Amino acid sequence: MLASKRVARLKKRSGEANEAKAEIATKAAAYLRVSTEEQVQHGHGLGNQERAVRAFAESQGYQLVDVITDPGVSGATKPAERPGFGKLLELAERQAFSVLLVYKFDRLARQIVYAVTAVNDLSERFGIVIRSVSEPIDTATPMGRTVFAVLAGMAEQERQAITERTHGGRREKATKGGFAGGAAPLGYSRDREGGLLIDEDQAATVRRVFELRKDGATLQAIADRLQAEKVKTQRGGRWRPSQVGYILDNPKYKGAVEYLFRWQGAETHVLKRGKHKAIVKG
Q1: Is there a catalytic annotation at residue 35?
Q2: Which end of the chain has fewer CB within 10 Å, C or N?
Q3: What CATH number is given to the structural domain containing 248?
Q4: Given pLDDT bands bounded at 50, 70 and 90, which one contains residue 1?
């Protein structure tokens, strides 16, 4: 008895699909991500990651079709919201590769739900497996997927611990009158210990703002005056009333520090005499 034409067609399609899979079986793409803070503190820069990925691809016989990067992107950002990862998905849709190489799995995401979702999505939609070049995990196997989930959970716990320590450190520093992080405001620069030093050139602008306000000028009038005199803003942009208002309302210029810390539903307001020198009299 002969098989029906329908079965013959199904077998043909299956054979073509297997040939297509075989064609890209050794093709790999690499995804690299680093935040500025990580690059400075841990040395896991994009260059180091790329060298490791390329060496691994060569050792495994993979043809590396592309190396996609997301520089300066936080691991807390969902993969789908990153420009580099979006390009990776476009390659996956074109069936350009079957193996995704990462330096570490936390390059996908620090939060376990995002990391696991990204892995499962690539696997279910495109049949792509993910391999870490610095961790012995292959998501093509059930054991590899289990180990990945465990490590992703540990990475998330570590991230939460780091966030908590950082928050506690900033709050402690603020309660002692220290500058608790962020960009130095106009008129100051950062010293080696993370404190504030007066930048005399910029401080002259700050004093001018306070003097004009004392003479009765509106925020708009002050912004217009500074713009007409071609006084530079901190970022070189145009002076706006909101910037003037921020300067006038910032306690740091009068030698104080003020922060509102929010953590796990609680708020802590800190207003202390600062360790830095005031630019204007309080």
Answers
A1: yes
A2: N
A3: 3.90.1750.20
A4: very low
What tokens appear for 205 in the block?
């602008």
Query: How many structural domains comprise the chain?
Result: 2
Q: Which of 200, 226, 227 is nearest to 213 (CA)?
A: 226
| pLDDT at 216 exceeding the cut of 70 | yes
Strand pairing class (266-273; 256-263): antiparallel
Give the domain range for residue 229: 176-273
Cα 218 to Cα 183, 224, 240, 242, 244: the distances in Å are: 26, 10, 12, 11, 9
37 lies in the same domain as 154: yes
- Of 4, 14, 35, 123, the active-site residue reads 35
Indicate the average pLDDT of the chain: 80
What sign results for the dihedral spanned by CA atoms 103, 109, 111, 117? negative
22-69 pLDDT tens trace: 455 789 999 998 876 555 445 457 888 899 999 999 999 999 999 999
Residue 102 lies in a domain: yes
Report yes or no: 227 and 238 within 8 Å, Cβ to Cβ: yes
Within this chain, do residues 152 and 109 fall inside the same structural domain, yes or no?
yes
CATH number, domain with residue 95? 3.40.50.1390
Question: What is the tens place of the pLDDT at every residue in 253-267?
Answer: 999 888 888 777 778
Query: Does the pLDDT of residue 132 top 50, yes or no?
Result: yes
Question: For strand 196-198 and strand 188-190, is the pairing parallel, antiparallel, or unpaired?
Answer: antiparallel
The reported pLDDT for the residue numbered 70 is 87
